[in-house]
Design goal:
By secondary structure, this protein is mostly helical. Helix content is 63%, strand content 4%. The strands form three sheets. A three-stranded antiparallel sheet has the order 1-2-3. α4 packs parallel to α11 and α7 packs antiparallel against α8. The longest helix is centred in the first third of the chain and has 65 residues. The chain is globular.
């Protein structure tokens, strides 16, 4: 009798409970129709779910209902999906069972040799194409920046005499805002995954997270054009980080022998169409991007080894080093043939980042404490910058999540940048000409 009464009480107690992840009126729930966890609208319903997370949901609903009329609650509802079923895991582990081993034995020794030779060929193509993408980005930025500063210099010299400095200022603003607006629109409305440097997305991919559209051709186009417009528009961004993402996209496309964007299958390298093989080539592409950006093949290998991939083998080291070396060498040759500042065959452009030539300087012993103080001050400044950047990033994620707001933000930053640069001409008195014709150095004016 006591056992039956206890069983009845337990059944009554748990009969009213709803599943943990089901459609709810408030809080966070899972939509059974599209299998996505999302933030639903808040309501004043008194029916509260029981079980796990009951108290946590109740506190969240209480705090949200008190500010449901605030803009933050509305913006939070507009964000939409937090966890999406589109983010899947990649199958990096090969199932080496009896059937797999038998199938590999039937392919024969010639297939093994052909596959290894094809791997080296793909590495060669990745390095060459990554170098040409870096060359296209660098030449485009230099050409646009040279034209921009040439026009600004002409109207600046003209308006100093005629006292109409407002016109060169507005011209500078237009040269900055328009390219930045184009870049931000392409990213916000075309390929949001192309935002930023792309390094976090590639690190996620190399560690087994399949980010949607992260290695698509459309992402590469938006990334390259966005970098050209952003750097040419005067934003304080670099082309080194995006080169890692660009190299990874090139590697993913070449190694598979097909294009998902154009829906074309070229029937090439079909034996590399596994997550395991594709991951290795993406690692090589990221390393080739580092090598093209900084002119450091060994640095590219170390980046993929230490920062990128969690899956590694010894043979992959030589493949990636070969790919990185080809990328740096190809970019060096192409830039030395086309850059007016150098001579053909000089090979003085190993990467996109070039600090120029430094004169031989002799340091004294008494200068060492000053260098130590400078290093400590730089570390403290970096810590403050990281803290401020984190707070600013969180604020932007909460407030600036609509696409048109993101475009407006980029345009305002670009306008403020050129405004500060324009007034710094009058505030600083140590400006000097870089050469007889400063337009030869458009990015350093």
């Amino acid at each position: 009798m006591a056992a039956s009464r206890k069983e009845t009480t337990t059944r009554t107690r748990y009969s009213d409970r709803t599943p943990l992840l089901s459609e709810q009126r408030g809080g966070y729930s899972m939509n059974n129709a599209d299998d996505e966890i999302r933030h639903d609208s808040f309501s004043g319903s008194q029916e509260q779910p029981h079980g796990f997370l009951h108290s946590r949901r109740r506190r969240r609903r209480f705090s949200s209902s008190s500010s449901s009329d605030s803009p933050d609650a509305h913006d939070l509802r507009e964000v939409g999906h937090f966890l999406s079923s589109k983010y899947e895991s990649l199958d990096y582990e090969e199932c080496e069972n009896t059937l797999f081993l038998e199938e590999e034995k039937q392919k024969g020794y010639k297939f093994v040799v052909w596959k290894r030779a094809s791997r080296w060929l793909v590495m060669l193509l990745i390095g060459i194409l990554t170098a040409f993408v870096a060359f296209f980005i660098d030449i485009s930025i230099s050409t646009f920046a040279g034209f921009k500063y040439k026009q600004i210099k002409y109207y600046m010299d003209k308006c100093i005499v005629e006292k109409c400095l407002l016109y060169p200022y507005l011209l500078w603003v237009a040269f900055n805002v328009v390219p930045v607006a184009i870049a931000s629109c392409m990213v916000a409305f075309g390929a949001p995954v192309a935002a930023g440097s792309g390094i976090p997305q590639i690190k996620c991919y190399l560690n087994g997270v399949k980010v949607p559209h992260v290695v698509r051709f459309k992402t590469l186009v938006v990334k390259a054009l966005g970098v050209i417009c952003s750097v040419g528009g005067g934003l304080t961004v670099g082309k080194e980080g995006p080169m890692i993402h660009s190299g990874a996209i090139i590697a993913a496309g070449i190694s598979q022998g097909r294009s998902t964007t154009f829906k074309r299958d070229f029937k090439l390298f079909s034996y590399f169409r596994t997550d395991h093989e594709k991951r290795d080539f993406v690692s090589a592409g990221a390393a080739a991007g580092v090598s093209a950006a900084f002119g450091a093949p060994v640095g590219g290998v170390l980046f993929s080894l230490e920062e990128g991939a969690s899956f590694w083998n010894q043979s992959l080291v030589w493949n990636i080093f070969f790919c990185s070396m080809i990328s740096s060498f190809t970019l060096n040759v192409v830039l030395s043939l086309t850059t007016s500042a150098g001579q053909a065959g000089e090979l003085s452009y190993p990467g996109l980042l070039n600090f120029g030539k430094f004169a031989s300087v002799v340091y004294q012993v008494w200068e060492m404490p000053i260098f130590l103080m400078m290093g400590a001050l730089g570390g403290l400044t970096g810590a403050v910058f990281n803290y401020t950047n984190r707070k600013l990033t969180v604020f932007r994620m909460r407030k600036i999540h609509r696409k048109w707001l993101q475009v407006l933000e980029a345009m305002l930053v670009s306008a403020m940048t050129c405004t500060v640069g324009f007034f710094m001409i009058y505030l600083l008195n140590d400006c000097h000409s870089l050469a007889a014709n400063p337009i030869d150095y458009p990015l350093q004016v």
